[in-house]
Amino acid sequence: MRKVAIIGVGSSKFGVRNDVNVAELAFEAFKPSVEDAGITPKDIEFVAVGSTGAGAWYEELLPAVVSAEYCGLTGAGLMRCEAACASGSAAFTAAYWTVASGQAEIALALGVEKMREIDTPTMMEWIGRAGYYLWEFHNFGLTFPAYYALYATAHMAKFGTTEEDLALVAVKNHKYASMNPIAHLRNKITVDDVLSSMVIAAPLKLFDCCPVTDGAASIILASEEKVRELKIDTPVWVAGIGYASGTANLSKRLDYVGLEAAVSASQMAYRIAKTSPDQIDVAVVHDCFTIAEIMAYEDLGFCKKGEGAKLIREGQTEIGGKIPVNVDGGLKAKGHPIGATGCSMIYELTKQLREETVERERQAPMKNYAALAHNVGGTGHYCYVTILRR
Amino acid sequence: MAAMPSIKSREIKIVQDIPVSKTLPFWEGLKQGKVLATRCVNCGKLHFPPVADCSQCLASNMEWFELSGEATIETFTHVVVRPATFQHEKPYTVAIGRLKEGLRVLAWLTGFKLSEIKVGMKAKLVAKITPEGNPTYEFTRPE
User: Fold this and answer.
1) Which of A88, A172, B5, B142 is 20 to 30 A away from residue B63, measured at CA?
2) Which of A139, A146, A154 is the closest to B74 by Cβ?
Protein backbone atom coordinates (compact mmCIF):
# COMPACT_ATOMS: atom_id res chain seq x y z
CA MET A 1 0.00 0.00 0.00
CA ARG A 2 1.28 3.47 -0.91
CA LYS A 3 1.21 6.51 1.37
CA VAL A 4 -1.83 8.71 0.74
CA ALA A 5 -2.25 12.39 1.59
CA ILE A 6 -5.18 14.77 1.83
CA ILE A 7 -4.30 17.68 -0.46
CA GLY A 8 -7.55 19.62 -0.60
CA VAL A 9 -10.69 20.05 1.51
CA GLY A 10 -13.93 21.98 1.17
CA SER A 11 -17.25 22.27 2.95
CA SER A 12 -20.59 23.90 2.31
CA LYS A 13 -22.35 25.93 4.96
CA PHE A 14 -24.40 23.49 7.08
CA GLY A 15 -28.03 24.17 7.95
CA VAL A 16 -31.46 24.25 6.34
CA ARG A 17 -30.37 24.66 2.74
CA ASN A 18 -33.63 24.90 0.84
CA ASP A 19 -31.89 27.34 -1.51
CA VAL A 20 -29.99 24.53 -3.29
CA ASN A 21 -30.56 21.04 -4.68
CA VAL A 22 -28.24 18.10 -4.02
CA ALA A 23 -25.88 18.76 -6.96
CA GLU A 24 -25.64 22.49 -6.19
CA LEU A 25 -24.88 21.70 -2.55
CA ALA A 26 -22.15 19.22 -3.58
CA PHE A 27 -20.61 21.93 -5.81
CA GLU A 28 -20.33 24.29 -2.81
CA ALA A 29 -18.01 21.82 -1.09
CA PHE A 30 -16.26 20.55 -4.22
CA LYS A 31 -15.08 23.87 -5.69
CA PRO A 32 -13.08 25.05 -2.64
CA SER A 33 -11.49 21.58 -2.30
CA VAL A 34 -10.20 21.71 -5.87
CA GLU A 35 -8.91 25.25 -5.35
CA ASP A 36 -7.30 24.18 -2.07
CA ALA A 37 -5.45 21.35 -3.85
CA GLY A 38 -4.53 23.48 -6.87
CA ILE A 39 -5.93 20.98 -9.38
CA THR A 40 -8.80 20.85 -11.89
CA PRO A 41 -11.73 18.38 -11.99
CA LYS A 42 -10.07 16.61 -14.95
CA ASP A 43 -7.16 15.59 -12.68
CA ILE A 44 -9.50 13.46 -10.55
CA GLU A 45 -9.50 9.82 -11.67
CA PHE A 46 -11.92 8.29 -9.17
CA VAL A 47 -14.87 9.66 -7.21
CA ALA A 48 -16.59 8.01 -4.22
CA VAL A 49 -19.77 9.73 -3.06
CA GLY A 50 -21.19 9.31 0.44
CA SER A 51 -24.94 9.89 0.56
CA THR A 52 -27.74 7.96 2.23
CA GLY A 53 -31.15 9.43 1.46
CA ALA A 54 -31.19 9.15 -2.35
CA GLY A 55 -34.81 8.83 -3.46
CA ALA A 56 -36.04 8.85 0.15
CA TRP A 57 -35.48 12.29 1.65
CA TYR A 58 -34.34 13.90 -1.55
CA GLU A 59 -35.48 13.31 -5.10
CA GLU A 60 -32.38 12.08 -6.93
CA LEU A 61 -31.79 8.32 -6.91
CA LEU A 62 -28.26 8.59 -8.32
CA PRO A 63 -26.68 11.52 -6.47
CA ALA A 64 -23.16 10.46 -7.48
CA VAL A 65 -24.04 10.81 -11.15
CA VAL A 66 -25.85 14.15 -10.90
CA SER A 67 -23.20 15.63 -8.58
CA ALA A 68 -20.35 14.41 -10.80
CA GLU A 69 -21.95 15.93 -13.91
CA TYR A 70 -22.61 19.21 -12.11
CA CYS A 71 -19.01 19.42 -10.86
CA GLY A 72 -17.38 18.57 -14.21
CA LEU A 73 -16.31 15.11 -13.08
CA THR A 74 -18.11 12.99 -15.71
CA GLY A 75 -15.80 10.31 -17.04
CA ALA A 76 -14.02 9.57 -13.76
CA GLY A 77 -14.57 6.24 -12.04
CA LEU A 78 -17.66 6.70 -9.90
CA MET A 79 -19.54 4.99 -7.08
CA ARG A 80 -21.87 5.80 -4.21
CA CYS A 81 -21.03 4.31 -0.80
CA GLU A 82 -23.66 3.45 1.81
CA ALA A 83 -22.74 2.94 5.44
CA ALA A 84 -25.68 4.90 6.88
CA CYS A 85 -24.35 7.85 8.92
CA ALA A 86 -20.80 6.64 8.18
CA SER A 87 -21.28 6.77 4.39
CA GLY A 88 -18.87 9.72 4.17
CA SER A 89 -16.15 7.66 5.85
CA ALA A 90 -16.94 4.70 3.60
CA ALA A 91 -16.49 6.99 0.58
CA PHE A 92 -13.25 8.34 2.07
CA THR A 93 -12.02 4.77 2.57
CA ALA A 94 -12.88 3.80 -1.02
CA ALA A 95 -11.06 6.88 -2.39
CA TYR A 96 -8.10 6.10 -0.10
CA TRP A 97 -7.92 2.51 -1.41
CA THR A 98 -7.81 3.57 -5.06
CA VAL A 99 -4.78 5.79 -4.36
CA ALA A 100 -3.09 3.46 -1.86
CA SER A 101 -3.36 0.53 -4.28
CA GLY A 102 -1.84 2.51 -7.15
CA GLN A 103 -5.02 2.48 -9.24
CA ALA A 104 -5.30 6.27 -9.14
CA GLU A 105 -2.98 9.20 -8.40
CA ILE A 106 -5.78 11.56 -7.34
CA ALA A 107 -9.18 10.54 -5.96
CA LEU A 108 -12.13 12.39 -4.45
CA ALA A 109 -14.40 11.59 -1.52
CA LEU A 110 -17.55 13.70 -1.70
CA GLY A 111 -20.18 13.58 1.04
CA VAL A 112 -23.52 15.24 0.41
CA GLU A 113 -26.96 15.05 2.03
CA LYS A 114 -30.21 16.97 1.54
CA MET A 115 -32.47 16.16 4.48
CA ARG A 116 -34.87 19.09 4.68
CA GLU A 117 -37.03 18.54 1.61
CA ILE A 118 -39.55 16.35 3.51
CA ASP A 119 -41.57 16.79 6.73
CA THR A 120 -40.18 15.80 10.14
CA PRO A 121 -42.42 12.75 10.89
CA THR A 122 -41.47 11.27 7.49
CA MET A 123 -37.80 11.93 8.25
CA MET A 124 -38.23 10.20 11.66
CA GLU A 125 -39.84 7.29 9.79
CA TRP A 126 -37.03 6.87 7.25
CA ILE A 127 -34.27 7.06 9.82
CA GLY A 128 -36.18 4.84 12.24
CA ARG A 129 -36.23 2.21 9.50
CA ALA A 130 -32.40 2.35 9.43
CA GLY A 131 -31.77 -0.66 11.62
CA TYR A 132 -33.66 -3.89 11.02
CA TYR A 133 -36.99 -2.72 9.56
CA LEU A 134 -38.80 -6.05 9.80
CA TRP A 135 -37.93 -6.91 13.39
CA GLU A 136 -37.35 -3.60 15.17
CA PHE A 137 -39.34 -0.97 13.29
CA HIS A 138 -42.37 -2.56 11.61
CA ASN A 139 -44.26 -3.36 14.83
CA PHE A 140 -42.41 -1.14 17.28
CA GLY A 141 -41.77 2.24 15.63
CA LEU A 142 -38.28 2.84 16.97
CA THR A 143 -36.91 6.26 16.03
CA PHE A 144 -33.24 7.06 15.84
CA PRO A 145 -33.26 8.96 19.13
CA ALA A 146 -35.01 5.91 20.63
CA TYR A 147 -32.25 3.50 19.54
CA TYR A 148 -29.65 5.66 21.29
CA ALA A 149 -31.99 6.22 24.25
CA LEU A 150 -31.84 2.44 24.84
CA TYR A 151 -28.08 2.86 25.25
CA ALA A 152 -28.50 5.95 27.44
CA THR A 153 -30.85 4.14 29.85
CA ALA A 154 -28.44 1.21 30.19
CA HIS A 155 -25.37 3.45 30.60
CA MET A 156 -27.12 5.50 33.28
CA ALA A 157 -28.25 2.36 35.12
CA LYS A 158 -24.83 0.72 35.03
CA PHE A 159 -22.44 3.63 35.57
CA GLY A 160 -24.55 6.35 37.22
CA THR A 161 -24.27 8.67 34.22
CA THR A 162 -26.89 11.41 34.64
CA GLU A 163 -29.06 13.54 32.38
CA GLU A 164 -26.92 16.51 33.50
CA ASP A 165 -23.79 14.70 32.25
CA LEU A 166 -25.45 14.20 28.87
CA ALA A 167 -26.42 17.88 28.84
CA LEU A 168 -22.78 18.92 29.34
CA VAL A 169 -21.93 17.36 25.97
CA ALA A 170 -24.56 19.51 24.25
CA VAL A 171 -23.40 22.64 26.08
CA LYS A 172 -19.76 22.06 25.04
CA ASN A 173 -20.58 21.33 21.42
CA HIS A 174 -22.91 24.31 21.05
CA LYS A 175 -20.14 26.50 22.52
CA TYR A 176 -17.69 25.45 19.81
CA ALA A 177 -20.36 25.62 17.08
CA SER A 178 -20.94 29.24 18.09
CA MET A 179 -17.33 29.88 16.96
CA ASN A 180 -17.71 27.94 13.71
CA PRO A 181 -19.20 29.97 10.84
CA ILE A 182 -20.27 26.86 8.85
CA ALA A 183 -22.17 25.29 11.80
CA HIS A 184 -25.96 24.78 11.74
CA LEU A 185 -26.78 25.68 15.38
CA ARG A 186 -24.64 28.61 16.53
CA ASN A 187 -26.49 29.44 19.76
CA LYS A 188 -24.84 28.86 23.13
CA ILE A 189 -27.00 26.86 25.53
CA THR A 190 -27.00 25.93 29.23
CA VAL A 191 -27.53 22.66 31.09
CA ASP A 192 -30.98 23.96 32.13
CA ASP A 193 -31.88 24.61 28.49
CA VAL A 194 -31.12 20.97 27.71
CA LEU A 195 -32.92 19.55 30.75
CA SER A 196 -36.04 21.64 30.11
CA SER A 197 -36.24 20.86 26.38
CA MET A 198 -39.04 18.52 25.25
CA VAL A 199 -38.64 14.78 25.63
CA ILE A 200 -38.05 13.07 22.29
CA ALA A 201 -37.32 9.48 23.44
CA ALA A 202 -36.72 9.35 27.19
CA PRO A 203 -34.18 9.96 28.62
CA LEU A 204 -33.12 11.92 25.50
CA LYS A 205 -34.54 15.40 25.01
CA LEU A 206 -34.53 17.77 22.06
CA PHE A 207 -31.15 19.32 22.93
CA ASP A 208 -29.60 15.86 23.37
CA CYS A 209 -30.24 15.29 19.64
CA CYS A 210 -28.39 16.53 16.58
CA PRO A 211 -30.43 18.67 14.20
CA VAL A 212 -31.63 17.50 10.78
CA THR A 213 -29.11 19.22 8.54
CA ASP A 214 -28.26 19.76 4.89
CA GLY A 215 -24.57 19.87 4.03
CA ALA A 216 -21.68 18.67 1.90
CA ALA A 217 -17.94 18.16 2.35
CA SER A 218 -15.28 17.30 -0.20
CA ILE A 219 -11.86 15.71 0.30
CA ILE A 220 -9.14 15.26 -2.33
CA LEU A 221 -6.57 12.50 -1.82
CA ALA A 222 -3.30 12.02 -3.67
CA SER A 223 -0.24 9.78 -3.81
CA GLU A 224 3.12 10.84 -2.34
CA GLU A 225 4.43 11.31 -5.88
CA LYS A 226 1.58 13.71 -6.72
CA VAL A 227 2.12 15.60 -3.46
CA ARG A 228 5.71 16.30 -4.57
CA GLU A 229 4.74 17.10 -8.15
CA LEU A 230 2.01 19.55 -7.04
CA LYS A 231 4.34 21.04 -4.38
CA ILE A 232 1.70 20.66 -1.65
CA ASP A 233 3.20 22.46 1.38
CA THR A 234 1.05 20.96 4.17
CA PRO A 235 -0.07 17.47 3.17
CA VAL A 236 -2.06 15.65 5.84
CA TRP A 237 -1.33 11.91 5.74
CA VAL A 238 -3.79 9.09 6.25
CA ALA A 239 -2.05 7.15 9.03
CA GLY A 240 -4.66 4.43 9.45
CA ILE A 241 -8.28 3.52 8.85
CA GLY A 242 -10.07 0.96 11.02
CA TYR A 243 -13.52 -0.44 10.38
CA ALA A 244 -15.99 -2.90 11.88
CA SER A 245 -19.72 -3.61 12.05
CA GLY A 246 -22.44 -4.50 14.53
CA THR A 247 -25.59 -6.67 14.36
CA ALA A 248 -28.66 -5.30 12.54
CA ASN A 249 -30.91 -6.28 15.46
CA LEU A 250 -30.11 -4.27 18.58
CA SER A 251 -31.47 -7.26 20.52
CA LYS A 252 -28.37 -9.22 19.45
CA ARG A 253 -25.79 -6.82 20.91
CA LEU A 254 -23.58 -7.95 23.80
CA ASP A 255 -24.61 -4.99 25.97
CA TYR A 256 -26.02 -1.45 25.71
CA VAL A 257 -23.25 0.61 27.29
CA GLY A 258 -20.89 0.90 24.31
CA LEU A 259 -20.57 0.08 20.63
CA GLU A 260 -18.54 -3.05 19.92
CA ALA A 261 -17.93 -1.91 16.34
CA ALA A 262 -16.33 1.32 17.59
CA VAL A 263 -14.01 -0.55 19.95
CA SER A 264 -12.88 -2.91 17.16
CA ALA A 265 -12.52 -0.15 14.54
CA SER A 266 -10.47 2.06 16.84
CA GLN A 267 -8.14 -0.78 17.88
CA MET A 268 -7.55 -1.52 14.20
CA ALA A 269 -6.86 2.15 13.41
CA TYR A 270 -4.43 2.57 16.35
CA ARG A 271 -2.61 -0.61 15.29
CA ILE A 272 -2.21 0.46 11.65
CA ALA A 273 -1.23 4.03 12.58
CA LYS A 274 1.16 2.68 15.27
CA THR A 275 -0.31 5.04 17.84
CA SER A 276 -2.47 5.06 20.96
CA PRO A 277 -5.30 7.17 22.39
CA ASP A 278 -2.91 9.26 24.53
CA GLN A 279 -1.01 10.37 21.42
CA ILE A 280 -4.06 11.95 19.74
CA ASP A 281 -4.13 15.78 19.84
CA VAL A 282 -7.73 16.31 18.73
CA ALA A 283 -10.71 14.11 17.90
CA VAL A 284 -14.06 14.40 16.20
CA VAL A 285 -16.50 11.75 17.41
CA HIS A 286 -19.96 10.70 16.32
CA ASP A 287 -22.16 12.67 18.75
CA CYS A 288 -25.49 12.21 16.94
CA PHE A 289 -26.89 12.11 20.47
CA THR A 290 -25.15 13.25 23.65
CA ILE A 291 -24.87 9.69 25.01
CA ALA A 292 -23.01 8.73 21.83
CA GLU A 293 -20.15 11.13 22.64
CA ILE A 294 -19.80 9.76 26.18
CA MET A 295 -19.72 6.18 24.87
CA ALA A 296 -17.21 7.25 22.20
CA TYR A 297 -14.75 8.51 24.86
CA GLU A 298 -14.86 5.03 26.39
CA ASP A 299 -14.92 3.00 23.16
CA LEU A 300 -11.93 4.95 21.78
CA GLY A 301 -9.92 4.52 24.98
CA PHE A 302 -9.83 8.22 25.95
CA CYS A 303 -10.93 6.99 29.39
CA LYS A 304 -11.84 3.71 31.05
CA LYS A 305 -15.23 2.06 30.49
CA GLY A 306 -17.82 3.84 32.60
CA GLU A 307 -15.74 7.00 33.09
CA GLY A 308 -16.97 8.96 30.09
CA ALA A 309 -19.19 11.18 32.19
CA LYS A 310 -16.26 12.02 34.46
CA LEU A 311 -14.24 13.14 31.42
CA ILE A 312 -16.90 15.65 30.33
CA ARG A 313 -17.54 16.81 33.93
CA GLU A 314 -13.83 17.60 34.35
CA GLY A 315 -13.72 19.52 31.07
CA GLN A 316 -11.04 17.17 29.71
CA THR A 317 -12.60 17.19 26.24
CA GLU A 318 -12.46 20.98 25.86
CA ILE A 319 -9.57 22.96 24.36
CA GLY A 320 -6.90 22.89 27.09
CA GLY A 321 -8.08 19.52 28.39
CA LYS A 322 -6.54 16.09 27.92
CA ILE A 323 -8.19 15.45 24.55
CA PRO A 324 -10.29 18.15 22.84
CA VAL A 325 -13.34 16.55 21.20
CA ASN A 326 -15.73 18.02 18.63
CA VAL A 327 -14.33 21.53 18.73
CA ASP A 328 -16.12 22.16 15.43
CA GLY A 329 -19.47 21.81 17.23
CA GLY A 330 -19.84 18.10 16.45
CA LEU A 331 -22.86 16.50 14.85
CA LYS A 332 -24.80 17.91 17.79
CA ALA A 333 -24.44 21.56 16.78
CA LYS A 334 -22.41 21.81 13.57
CA GLY A 335 -25.04 19.43 12.18
CA HIS A 336 -25.31 15.90 10.82
CA PRO A 337 -26.01 15.72 7.09
CA ILE A 338 -25.83 11.93 7.29
CA GLY A 339 -23.77 10.94 4.23
CA ALA A 340 -21.61 14.08 4.42
CA THR A 341 -20.59 13.75 8.07
CA GLY A 342 -17.59 11.43 7.53
CA CYS A 343 -16.07 13.83 4.99
CA SER A 344 -16.98 16.80 7.19
CA MET A 345 -14.98 15.21 10.03
CA ILE A 346 -11.94 14.84 7.75
CA TYR A 347 -12.40 18.47 6.61
CA GLU A 348 -12.26 19.67 10.23
CA LEU A 349 -9.29 17.53 11.22
CA THR A 350 -7.32 18.60 8.14
CA LYS A 351 -7.90 22.26 9.09
CA GLN A 352 -6.91 21.48 12.70
CA LEU A 353 -3.71 19.68 11.67
CA ARG A 354 -2.77 22.51 9.31
CA GLU A 355 -3.46 24.89 12.24
CA GLU A 356 -5.71 26.97 10.04
CA THR A 357 -9.08 26.83 11.78
CA VAL A 358 -10.83 30.10 11.10
CA GLU A 359 -11.18 31.00 14.76
CA ARG A 360 -8.12 30.70 17.00
CA GLU A 361 -10.20 29.96 20.13
CA ARG A 362 -11.15 26.57 18.75
CA GLN A 363 -7.75 25.55 17.40
CA ALA A 364 -6.56 22.52 19.38
CA PRO A 365 -2.91 22.70 20.47
CA MET A 366 -0.72 20.25 18.50
CA LYS A 367 1.97 18.11 20.12
CA ASN A 368 2.10 15.00 17.96
CA TYR A 369 0.13 16.35 14.99
CA ALA A 370 -2.19 13.36 15.19
CA ALA A 371 -5.97 13.52 14.90
CA LEU A 372 -8.78 10.96 15.02
CA ALA A 373 -12.22 10.76 13.41
CA HIS A 374 -14.84 8.32 14.78
CA ASN A 375 -17.81 7.92 12.45
CA VAL A 376 -20.64 5.55 13.38
CA GLY A 377 -23.30 4.39 10.91
CA GLY A 378 -26.70 3.49 12.28
CA THR A 379 -26.65 2.58 15.97
CA GLY A 380 -23.22 0.97 15.92
CA HIS A 381 -24.16 -0.92 12.76
CA TYR A 382 -21.09 0.40 10.96
CA CYS A 383 -18.02 2.14 12.35
CA TYR A 384 -15.01 3.78 10.72
CA VAL A 385 -12.12 5.28 12.70
CA THR A 386 -9.60 7.33 10.73
CA ILE A 387 -6.30 8.61 12.07
CA LEU A 388 -4.56 11.48 10.29
CA ARG A 389 -1.08 12.91 10.76
CA ARG A 390 0.65 16.00 9.47
CA MET B 1 -35.88 32.94 6.59
CA ALA B 2 -38.57 33.36 3.95
CA ALA B 3 -39.66 30.14 2.23
CA MET B 4 -37.35 29.37 -0.66
CA PRO B 5 -38.86 28.86 -4.11
CA SER B 6 -39.35 25.15 -4.88
CA ILE B 7 -41.36 22.76 -7.05
CA LYS B 8 -43.11 19.61 -5.78
CA SER B 9 -41.72 16.23 -6.84
CA ARG B 10 -44.17 13.70 -8.30
CA GLU B 11 -46.01 11.81 -5.56
CA ILE B 12 -45.62 8.07 -5.11
CA LYS B 13 -47.04 5.67 -2.52
CA ILE B 14 -44.68 2.92 -1.39
CA VAL B 15 -45.94 -0.35 0.13
CA GLN B 16 -43.72 -3.43 -0.03
CA ASP B 17 -44.94 -7.06 0.14
CA ILE B 18 -42.50 -8.60 2.61
CA PRO B 19 -42.07 -12.37 2.14
CA VAL B 20 -42.68 -14.41 5.31
CA SER B 21 -43.01 -17.90 3.85
CA LYS B 22 -39.86 -19.11 5.64
CA THR B 23 -40.95 -17.76 9.03
CA LEU B 24 -44.68 -18.43 8.64
CA PRO B 25 -44.97 -20.60 11.80
CA PHE B 26 -43.85 -17.55 13.80
CA TRP B 27 -46.58 -15.27 12.41
CA GLU B 28 -49.20 -18.04 12.68
CA GLY B 29 -47.99 -18.78 16.23
CA LEU B 30 -48.63 -15.19 17.29
CA LYS B 31 -52.27 -15.57 16.22
CA GLN B 32 -52.50 -18.63 18.52
CA GLY B 33 -50.98 -16.74 21.44
CA LYS B 34 -47.50 -18.24 21.16
CA VAL B 35 -44.11 -16.57 20.61
CA LEU B 36 -41.91 -19.04 18.73
CA ALA B 37 -38.20 -19.08 18.02
CA THR B 38 -35.95 -21.43 16.03
CA ARG B 39 -33.19 -23.85 17.05
CA CYS B 40 -30.57 -25.03 14.55
CA VAL B 41 -30.77 -28.82 14.38
CA ASN B 42 -27.18 -28.95 13.13
CA CYS B 43 -25.34 -26.78 15.70
CA GLY B 44 -27.95 -26.12 18.39
CA LYS B 45 -27.85 -22.31 18.20
CA LEU B 46 -31.07 -20.59 19.27
CA HIS B 47 -32.36 -17.76 17.10
CA PHE B 48 -34.67 -14.85 17.85
CA PRO B 49 -35.86 -13.31 15.62
CA PRO B 50 -36.57 -16.72 14.07
CA VAL B 51 -34.63 -17.61 10.92
CA ALA B 52 -34.63 -20.30 8.23
CA ASP B 53 -30.85 -20.31 7.87
CA CYS B 54 -28.21 -20.51 10.60
CA SER B 55 -25.66 -17.65 10.64
CA GLN B 56 -23.38 -19.74 12.88
CA CYS B 57 -23.03 -22.97 10.84
CA LEU B 58 -24.87 -22.02 7.60
CA ALA B 59 -27.16 -25.06 7.85
CA SER B 60 -30.82 -24.64 6.84
CA ASN B 61 -32.43 -27.18 9.14
CA MET B 62 -34.37 -25.42 11.89
CA GLU B 63 -36.84 -26.63 14.47
CA TRP B 64 -39.43 -24.38 16.08
CA PHE B 65 -39.92 -24.03 19.84
CA GLU B 66 -42.07 -21.85 22.08
CA LEU B 67 -40.29 -19.22 24.20
CA SER B 68 -40.85 -19.23 27.98
CA GLY B 69 -41.66 -15.51 27.92
CA GLU B 70 -39.85 -15.02 31.24
CA ALA B 71 -37.76 -11.90 30.72
CA THR B 72 -35.52 -9.46 32.57
CA ILE B 73 -35.62 -5.91 31.22
CA GLU B 74 -32.12 -4.80 30.19
CA THR B 75 -32.98 -1.35 28.85
CA PHE B 76 -35.93 0.75 27.67
CA THR B 77 -37.02 4.08 26.23
CA HIS B 78 -40.28 5.99 26.07
CA VAL B 79 -40.91 7.22 22.52
CA VAL B 80 -42.72 10.57 22.58
CA VAL B 81 -41.92 11.99 19.14
CA ARG B 82 -43.20 9.33 16.77
CA PRO B 83 -42.53 8.48 13.14
CA ALA B 84 -45.08 9.19 10.38
CA THR B 85 -46.78 5.77 10.44
CA PHE B 86 -47.04 5.75 14.27
CA GLN B 87 -48.63 9.21 14.58
CA HIS B 88 -51.98 7.64 15.58
CA GLU B 89 -50.41 5.85 18.56
CA LYS B 90 -50.03 7.36 22.02
CA PRO B 91 -46.38 7.60 23.18
CA TYR B 92 -45.08 4.08 23.71
CA THR B 93 -42.35 2.33 25.71
CA VAL B 94 -39.90 0.04 23.92
CA ALA B 95 -37.70 -2.37 25.87
CA ILE B 96 -35.05 -5.00 25.31
CA GLY B 97 -35.54 -8.03 27.54
CA ARG B 98 -33.34 -11.04 28.09
CA LEU B 99 -35.29 -14.30 28.18
CA LYS B 100 -34.58 -17.26 30.43
CA GLU B 101 -33.31 -19.10 27.31
CA GLY B 102 -30.59 -16.46 26.90
CA LEU B 103 -32.14 -14.85 23.83
CA ARG B 104 -32.95 -11.14 23.79
CA VAL B 105 -36.14 -9.62 22.37
CA LEU B 106 -36.98 -6.01 21.51
CA ALA B 107 -40.67 -5.12 21.86
CA TRP B 108 -43.15 -2.68 23.38
CA LEU B 109 -43.49 -2.80 27.15
CA THR B 110 -47.04 -2.28 28.44
CA GLY B 111 -48.97 -2.61 31.69
CA PHE B 112 -46.59 -0.51 33.80
CA LYS B 113 -46.51 3.17 34.70
CA LEU B 114 -43.37 4.74 33.21
CA SER B 115 -42.10 5.56 36.72
CA GLU B 116 -42.34 1.86 37.67
CA ILE B 117 -40.07 0.65 34.88
CA LYS B 118 -36.53 -0.16 35.97
CA VAL B 119 -33.55 -1.89 34.40
CA GLY B 120 -33.37 -5.39 35.88
CA MET B 121 -37.09 -5.82 36.53
CA LYS B 122 -39.07 -8.91 35.44
CA ALA B 123 -41.56 -8.87 32.58
CA LYS B 124 -43.50 -11.42 30.53
CA LEU B 125 -43.24 -11.69 26.74
CA VAL B 126 -46.65 -12.41 25.21
CA ALA B 127 -48.17 -12.69 21.73
CA LYS B 128 -50.74 -10.07 20.80
CA ILE B 129 -53.05 -9.00 17.97
CA THR B 130 -53.13 -5.22 17.46
CA PRO B 131 -56.49 -3.37 17.22
CA GLU B 132 -55.80 -3.21 13.45
CA GLY B 133 -55.55 -7.04 13.41
CA ASN B 134 -51.79 -7.37 12.98
CA PRO B 135 -49.92 -10.08 14.90
CA THR B 136 -47.19 -8.79 17.22
CA TYR B 137 -45.68 -9.44 20.65
CA GLU B 138 -44.98 -7.34 23.72
CA PHE B 139 -43.57 -7.36 27.23
CA THR B 140 -46.07 -6.90 29.99
CA ARG B 141 -46.56 -7.37 33.73
CA PRO B 142 -45.92 -10.98 34.83
CA GLU B 143 -48.98 -12.71 36.34
Assistant:
1) B142
2) A154
Is residue A34's pLDDT more than 90? Answer: yes
B29 is a domain residue: yes
Q: What is the CATH number of the domain that holds B102?
A: 2.40.50.840
Question: To probe the interface with B, which of A251, A253, A254, A255 has the most B CB atoms within 10 Å?
Answer: A251
**pLDDT on residue A119:** 95
Q: Encode chain A in three state secondary structure.
A: CCCEEEEEEEECCCECCCCCCHHHHHHHHHHHHHHHHCCCHHHCCEEEEECCCECCCECCCCHHHHHHHHCCCCCCEEEEECECECHHHHHHHHHHHHHHCCCCCEEEEEEEECCCCCCHHHHHHHHHCCCCHHHHHCCCCCCHHHHHHHHHHHHHHHHCCCHHHHHHHHHHHHHHHCCCCCCCCCCCCCHHHHHCCCEEEECEEHHHECCCCEEEEEEEEEEHHHHHHCCCCCCEEEEEEEEEECCCCHHHCCCCCCCHHHHHHHHHHHHHHCCCHHHCCEEECCCCEHHHHHHHHHHCCCCCCCCHHHHHHCCCCCCCCCCCECCCCHHHHHCCCHHHHHHHHHHHHHHHHCCCCCCHHHCCCCCCCEEEEEEEECCCCEEEEEEEEC
Domain presence at residue B136: yes
Please check whether residues B51 and B97 belong to one and the same domain. no
- Scanning every residue of chain B, which has its alpha carbon at the shortest distance from the alpha carbon of A17? B4
Assess A24–B contact: CB distance below 8 Å, yes or no.
no
pLDDT at residue number A154: 98
Which CATH number is A28's domain given?
Answer: 3.40.47.10
Q: Are residues B49 and B97 in the same domain?
A: no
Please indicate, yes or no, if residue B35 is contained in any of the structural domains.
Answer: yes
| Active site positions of A, annotated | 85, 336
Minimal Cβ distance to A19: which of B4, B86, B105: B4
Whether A365 maps to a domain, the answer reads: no
Tell me: do B44 and B84 sit in the same domain: no
Q: Please give the pLDDT value at position B2.
A: 57
> Searching chain B, which residue's CA lies closest to the CA of residue A59?
B9
Q: Is B120 in the same domain as B105? A: yes
Among A residues 245-264, those touching chain B with beta carbons less than 8 Å apart: 249-252, 256
The tally of domains found in chain A comes to 1
Question: Per-block average pLDDT, block size 10, for chain B (143 residues)?
Answer: 86 96 98 98 98 98 98 98 97 98 98 97 97 95 91
Q: Over 70: is that where the pLDDT of A283 sits? A: yes
- Chain A: give the shortest CA distance to residue B143, in Å: 23
* Domain residue limits at B39: 20-66
Residues in chain B closer than 8 A to A251 (CB atoms): 48-49, 96, 103-106
The pLDDT tens digits of the residues spanning B112-123 come to 999 999 999 999
- Render pLDDT for A68-117 as a digit per residue (tens, 0 to 9): 999 999 999 999 999 999 999 999 999 999 999 999 999 999 999 999 99
| Residue B100 contacts A where some CB pair is shorter than 8 Å | no
Percent of the residues in chain A that have a pLDDT greater than 90, as a whole number: 98
Domain end point (choices B9, B38, B66): B66
Looking at the fold, whether B90 and B132 belong to one and the same domain comes out as yes
pLDDT at B66 (0 to 100): 98
B6 touches chain A (CB under 8 A): yes
Q: What is the pLDDT of residue B61?
A: 98
